[in-house]
Specification:
The complex is a heterodimer of chains A (about 475) and B (about 500). Chain A has about 475 residues and is mainly alpha-helical. Among the domains of chain A are: about 1-35; about 35-115 and about 145-210, no CATH class; about 385-480, no CATH class. In chain A, about 40% of the residues lie in helices and about 10% in strands. Chain A has a 3-stranded antiparallel β-sheet. In chain A, helix 6 (about 160-170) packs across helix 7 and helix 9 crosses helix 10. The longest helix of chain A is centred in the N-terminal third of the chain and has 32 residues, at about 5-35. Chain B is α+β, with helices and mostly antiparallel strands. Chain B is built from 20 helices and 16 strands. In chain B, helix 5 (about 65-75) packs across helix 8 and helix 14 (about 320-335) packs across helix 20 (about 485-495). Chain B has helices at about 1-10, 10-35, 45-55, 60, 65-75, 125, 150-165, 170-180, 185-210, 225-230, 255-260, 275-285, 295-310, 320-335, 335-340, 355-360, 365-370, 370-375, 420-425, 485-495, and strands spanning about 40, 65, 105-110, 115-120, 125-130, 140, 220-225, 250, 355, 395-400, 435, 440-445, 450, 455, 460, 460-465. In chain B, strand 3 (about 105-110) and strand 4 form a beta hairpin. The chains are: A mainly alpha (about 475), B alpha+beta (about 500). The interface of A and B includes residues 80, 94, 96 and 172 of A.
């Protein structure tokens, strides 16, 4: 054989080997990082609401095994004992993940969030009771801001390294040798980098002295502005309660709006935008899932008041409600789900100030860019008057949760409590809201101070001039909604 | 071509040397590989021996080198209340030649990576001892709650030794050489890193378990069940509210698990789990066995045996006439919560949780188990299919347990605050305010262990004070609990319970 053909042969062999190796490497990479396994089955739509994926795992998932050991490595970065439970998120007995957390295998198992992290709440009738979990309720106990801060702080802590993390993982499971190396050289460094990125994206909420969200609240429009669009950080702060998301069909209709300051004209838009905010990928699967959620939540009934009701007293309250409240709060009412001008409602204006027409335009543009067609966000002046379905479970009240219970809402401002503790889920049937004072509430709750920026409890003085007897009747009627 | 030429010019001698070196390296590598991959527990044919001495896998992660284990009582006698591990209540059986066995009941041995290691197994808490008189030989009874073992004293001894400045390779390895309990390779490993690794680990455990010091002393036969799991999750224990601090309770008996599973009885003192299998794995954490290290075959042998394991019958005389008078009283006052008999567990409330405001016993143990811990336990055994824990629940009372072998389960109530059955039928103010635990001589009159003996043959017993937080002996009293019956009726019930 000649020298040239021998070299050619060698080159050919090398080429074939390279192609084979390349093919294997490609398959290996796909298998370890991109292969999607089908999601688990759910018993019903409620379970799927609580634990089902909205498609955020690919872009914003934390590797499951890292997620699992983080509380053991960084207990000092958590509010207290209890792992993830210490953030007040809802975690049901027997369930692998807390409510609002999803798990999917995309190459490797990853954990992400879904709607339920902010929209599933609990209540107890007494301390010695396991909390009743209500899907679609506001997550009154969850401190989502602290949870976000935890991941960021863990990510930049020197203990966030392969040796420490793999050492902890070793205590709970046996990763294969290859998987261990993948974690060591790729997955852990990538996660650390992603968390660094999150830190930058959330720097605006960590400005020194900035008002905290507290339990059961977030700053929704600033999140939209700085996450979905990349508008420059401004000086607004808009702490607002998580709303309930049941019975959404009562919020649909011509010229009806959602979000506290009527920023969205359609249920579908809010659902889509919120899910995108959690990191969901805008695919066809995603849009289908959003439609399913829309249908499910539209028909989900509000939970009934579980404590004893004085039916006669409630009957006496009905005409008072019709006279003073129905126009704004009855589904289909003339002013329901429409902006009440700030000059009339007189509640804290900070939340309204966070959203602008420019922001709406930018958000709409971004969503269109993603290939999604949904009714456009808008800018209105004022706060919406929502239906009061299940209002008993939506304490504290007003958009910023500054009034602890319904009884106080019917009192003039001077009589409303100025400092109270929110996030304790034992109910107070006398004042109609959660318990907000006492050693247990102080221990579990987050301190709301109405003098802090954005936390004001002024306004909504409707009914404050009623007699004590009328107020009692109206209060009893409201329990039935 | 050039290469081939230069190769040929090397003398053949170096080629031989080269091959020998390669061969020798290969042989050493293989031998090391075989040795370091060794994982062999000592096995036992008889199931009782397997229970007493078999390994659950704990040695793999938490094992103490056997040679160090043997040495510690000699090097650090100042931290022991006596001469050896027997002083901590560990039981040494005799082999067929009449010599004491090498390891006490409850300590297993496994060779991991070439080093023999020991750690505790189920039997350290679930094998007890009964003597008819101070001079009798002890009856060793498997499945009974350990009444002599001071688990806290044992862990305190290990940690105190580790903290001592003498716990070094220089001090310990020459002693090991003298005792001949490990070969030169293991001694080398121990010298280089084994001793210091062990010291580090024990110090870490000592710190994580510091919280035990803020509870009353456990004493023999007791431990804090559910605060240690919080420490294993690395909860910041100093941030726990005071109501949670004290989780002390008696070791339980573990016979007849099959019936408990069939009737879906709620297990653990507060009834927080109704799955026997899950409860077994939860308890196995106490033997150092984690999801990756659990020896599933060995555990299965024990699990299967426990399904039908039975307590031994009461060995002392029973007044049948008196017992016969006790039967209908038992049926009226006790059976609905505790079952028809020691073998028939049928009854309306058997295995259910009685709310704390009805049973009114000390609630410290109940409060030590929290919803926070409960939901975190859902992550244990994650990734292991249906082994993942999913049965823990937060309850608000104590579970009604069957009374199989109740004569062996003294002292009584979840925290072992009532020394005898006869005392339990008295209202709390008549129950002993203080008594001694750890003495294994039986009291057939009051049914329990002799509890007024402070010491014997230089061995001091544990003074149990019911006034301490968590040690309360109140509750399980009142008309429904038989404490207002006549003395004669009470005697009759106690006599009847001897037959369980």
């Amino acid at each position: 054989m000649s020298l040239r053909s021998r070299t050619k042969r060698k080159l050919l062999i090398i080429l074939v080997v390279l192609i084979l190796f390349g093919g294997f490497a490609a398959w290996f990479a796909w298998n370890k990082f991109f292969r999607e396994e089908p999601e688990q089955q759910f018993a019903n739509e409620i379970e799927r609401f609580k634990y089902g994926s909205i498609g955020a795992e690919a872009d914003r998932g934390i590797p499951y095994w890292i997620w699992l050991v983080l509380p053991r490595i960084f207990p000092d970065l958590m509010p207290g004992p209890g792992g993830y439970q210490s953030f007040g998120i809802v975690w049901e007995e027997g369930q692998e993940l807390p409510v609002g957390f999803t798990k999917r295998i995309i190459g490797f198992p990853r954990v992400a969030n879904n709607c339920a992290i902010c929209h599933t709440g609990t209540w107890r009738s007494k301390p010695d009771e396991v909390p009743h979990v209500v899907a679609a309720a506001p997550s009154h106990t969850a401190n989502v801001q602290e949870l976000l801060r935890f991941f960021i702080n863990a990510g930049k802590d020197p203990r966030f390294n392969a040796q420490t993390i793999l050492g902890e993982i070793d205590q709970v499971t046996k990763l294969s040798f290859i998987d261990k190396q993948l974690y060591r050289f790729i997955i852990i460094p990538f996660t650390r980098r992603a968390l660094r990125q999150q830190e930058e994206q959330l720097a605006w909420m960590n400005r020194p002295g900035w008002p905290a969200w507290g339990k059961g609240r977030d700053d929704p429009m600033n999140l939209t502005k700085y996450f979905m669009t990349s508008m420059p950080v401004d000086n607004t702060t808009g702490q607002a309660d998580f709303p309930s998301v049941w019975n959404l069909k009562a919020r649909k209709g011509e010229n009806r709006f959602l979000n506290w300051s009527c920023d969205t004209p359609a249920v579908r838009s809010v659902i889509i935008d919120s899910a995108l905010g959690l990191g969901a990928r805008p695919t066809n699967w995603f849009l289908q899932r959003m439609e399913q959620l829309d249908n499910f939540l539209s028909e989900s009934p509000a939970p009934k008041y579980p404590f004893p009701l004085d039916e006669n007293l409630a009957l006496a309250g009905s005409p008072i409600y019709k006279r003073l409240c129905a126009d704004c709060h009855d589904p289909g009412g003339s002013r329901t789900n429409r902006p009440i001008p700030i000059a009339e409602i007189k509640t804290d204006p900070e939340r309204m100030a966070t959203w602008t027409q420019a922001a709406a335009d930018e958000a709409n543009r971004r969503v269109k860019e993603m290939g999604i067609d949904r009714p456009n966000m808008v800018k209105q002046e004022g706060y919406q008057a929502p239906p009061l379905d299940g209002i008993w479970l939506r304490a504290p009240y007003l958009h910023n949760g500054s009034v602890p219970n319904l009884r106080e809402l019917l009192e003039p401002e001077e009589s409303r409590t100025k400092v109270f503790y929110r996030g304790y889920d034992v109910y107070d049937p006398i004042n109609v809201g959660f318990m907000t004072s006492g050693p247990d509430a102080e221990h579990s709750g987050w301190k709301h101070d109405v003098s802090e920026r954005g936390n004001g409890n002024r306004g909504h003085l409707y009914g404050t001039a009623l007699s004590a007897e009328e107020k009692r009747a109206l209060l009893e009627y409201l329990k039935k909604l | 071509m050039l290469l081939k030429a230069s190769y040929d010019t090397k003398p053949r001698f170096w080629r031989r040397v080269f091959s020998v070196v390669i061969l020798a390296t290969l042989v050493i590598a293989v031998w090391l590989g075989v040795r370091l991959s060794r994982d062999r527990a000592v096995t036992y044919d008889r199931i009782e021996d397997h229970f007493k001495y078999g390994s659950t896998g704990g040695e793999r992660g938490s094992g103490i080198p056997y040679s160090v284990w043997k040495l510690l009582p000699q090097v650090f006698p100042q931290y022991l209340p006596g001469r050896d591990y027997a002083a901590l209540g560990l039981i040494y059986e005799k082999d067929q030649n009449g010599n004491l066995k090498d390891l006490p009941i409850g300590v297993s041995k496994r060779n991991v990576m070439g080093i023999d290691r020991v750690f505790v197994n189920c039997a350290i808490c679930h094998v007890g001892s009964v003597r008819d008189t101070p001079e009798s030989a002890p009856r060793i009874i498997v499945g009974m709650p350990s009444n002599t073992v001071d688990l806290q004293g044992f862990s305190r001894f290990l940690i105190a030794s580790a903290r001592d400045e003498q716990f070094t390779a220089q001090r310990l390895v020459p002693e090991i050489a003298r005792a001949g309990t490990d070969d030169w390779i293991n001694r080398l490993g121990l010298s280089l890193f084994g001793i210091s690794l062990m010291r580090e680990r024990l110090l870490m455990l000592g710190n994580r378990f510091k919280f035990l010091d803020r509870e009353p002393d456990c004493g023999p036969g007791r431990f804090d069940t559910f605060n240690p799991p919080k420490a294993l999750f690395n909860f910041p224990m100093d941030k726990l509210p005071p109501e949670e601090w004290i989780g002390l309770c008696d070791f339980p008996s573990i016979w007849n698990q099959g019936q408990r599973e069939e009737r879906k009885m709620r297990l653990h003192w507060d009834g927080n789990n109704d799955s026997v299998r899950e409860r077994n794995r939860s308890a196995a954490f106490g033997t150092g066995a984690t999801p990756p290290t659990l020896d599933r075959e060995n555990i299965k042998r024990i699990e299967d045996w426990l399904l039908t394991a039975k307590p031994p019958p009461y060995p002392y005389p029973i007044n049948e006439a008196l017992a016969a008078r006790g039967a209908p009283l038992y049926a009226q006052y006790c059976a609905s919560c505790h079952g028809k008999s020691g073998s028939d567990f049928s009854g309306k409330d058997v295995g259910s949780v009685t709310p704390i405001d009805q049973i009114k016993t000390d609630r410290a143990r109940l409060d030590s188990y929290t919803l926070e811990l409960c939901v975190n336990q859902n992550l244990l055994y994650a990734g292991y299919g249906n082994e993942r824990f999913s049965h823990f629940r937060k309850t608000f009372g104590y579970a009604n347990a069957p009374l199989d072998g109740v004569w062996l389960r003294a002292p009584y109530l979840h925290n072992g605050s009532v020394p005898t059955l006869r005392d339990l039928l008295e209202p709390a103010e008549n129950r002993p305010q203080e008594f001694y635990r750890g003495y294994d001589v039986y009291d057939p009159k009051r049914v329990g262990f002799l509890s007024d003996v402070a010491s014997e043959k230089g061995r001091k017993f544990f003074r149990y004070e019911t006034k301490l937080k968590g040690n309360g002996n109140y509750g399980h009293e009142g008309p429904a609990y038989g404490t207002q019956l006549s003395p004669d009726q009470k005697d009759a019930i106690v006599e009847y319970l001897k037959k369980f």
